[in-house]
Amino acid sequence: MSAARSDRLSQVFAWIGHATMHCLTGLFLTAVLALETDWHQSYGDLIALWTVGAFLVGALAPFAGWLGDRWSNAKMMAVFFVGSGLATIAASLAATPTQLGVALTALGAFAAIYHPVGMSWLVRSAANKGVALGIWGVFGSTGVAIAGIVAGGLTALAGWRAALWIPGTIALAIGVVLVAAIATRWVVDGARDRAPSAEPARGDVIRAFIVLSITVFLGGLIYNATQIALPKAFAERADFLGGSVLGAGTLFTAIYLIASLLQIPAGWLSDRYPPRLVYLAAFVVQAPFMALAAAATGLPFVLAAAAMVMANVAAIPAENVLMVRYTPSRWRGSMFGAKFVLSLGVAPVAVQLVAILHERTGDFVALFTTLALCSAGIVVAAFLLPRERARSASVAVAAE
């Protein structure tokens, strides 16, 4: 099997893995609704069983990335598929809350492997890293979107246990295929990037690390706070929905699914032009729409909200390309693990920000104004990133 074909298979497994991770970790959030009746337990008690697993998804990410860097990205991905599949199947077999909690904890531990290892594996095997990361983002968004549909549909057809064991078995089967591909050397760990670039200067690494730590935190705050607030904001401000919860939820889902598709052209731009400029442009666009959303109502608010979400999501491939560019390849998995911890850590801050500002003001003016200032802060910080030249489009295409 040629190295080029191994790289293509690696990309496919990495893309599928992103959808698999988000789907498996989202199944219980819907399946638990049927479990309430089956086990005669409260929703609060049951959903709390996912607490430790959810924590481990982020907490173990740096360790998983370190193992991928030191051992093997491909083999760690096989561990992810097999382990998360078995953990999900074990959850479907649970007879008590304790057993279910242990299985969900195991699921969180294995799911922690994906982001740092899968992203590192993907960018090593991709010639056009921006496009590959854009497609990666679409697969992840799809996994989030289908988790509720898969769990709800299978629960309605065959019960909550089927909603867990059937997707778990599919993940396990993918893992077995990957193990076989590794054993037969259809998939191998590349010794270097498919499209290698010069190692960054130490000064640029330090500078980029400091700046990206700031922008990742602020961008994560914007992303999480927006996700939390928009369903309620649509219900309050989109008067044409008539206060419909279903209408607000449908509008929210549609905007995020459409926005996820923008990651592909944004990734393409990050391959052809300096990703610093693409990253900067996304937040230059977002800031005024965020400010408009603070004051607008009705259709103007919905359009402003859609624009600010799309700009935020479009920045993700450029951000990841920047992290790849300014991280030595031997530390890439560890760096993605650190990024995921930072992204996860900002979520509780976002929850409290939304809750406190809405509680004190009774609306979302203060929240969106604050987020607009955060977006402006990212613009200022992004100007401090090291300058780089665009990668030649002809080189990128030739590398394919």
The separation of the N and C termini measures: 16 Å
Name the CATH superfamily classification of the largest domain.
MFS general substrate transporter like domains
Number of strands: 0
- In quaternary terms, these chains amount to single chain
The overall number of domains is 2
- The shape is globular
State the name of the first-level CATH class of the largest domain: Mainly Alpha
Per-chain topology:
Blueprint: H1 3-39, H2 43-47, H3 51-59, H4 61-70, H5 73-92, H6 97-111, H7 114-125, H8 129-158, H9 160-183, H10 202-237, H11 245-261, H12 263-272, H13 275-295, H14 298-325, H15 332-361, H16 365-382, H17 393-399
Structure description:
The chain has 400 residues and is mainly alpha-helical. It has two domains: 3-183, MFS general substrate transporter like domains (Growth Hormone, Chain: A), CATH 1.20.1250.20; 202-399, Growth Hormone, Chain: A. 82% of the residues lie in helices and 0% in strands. The protein has helices at 3-39, 43-47, 51-59, 61-70, 73-92, 97-111, 114-125, 129-158, 160-183, 202-237, 245-261, 263-272, 275-295, 298-325, 332-361, 365-382, 393-399. Helix 4 packs antiparallel against helix 15 (332-361). The radius of gyration is 21 Å and the shape is globular. It starts with a helix and ends with a helix.
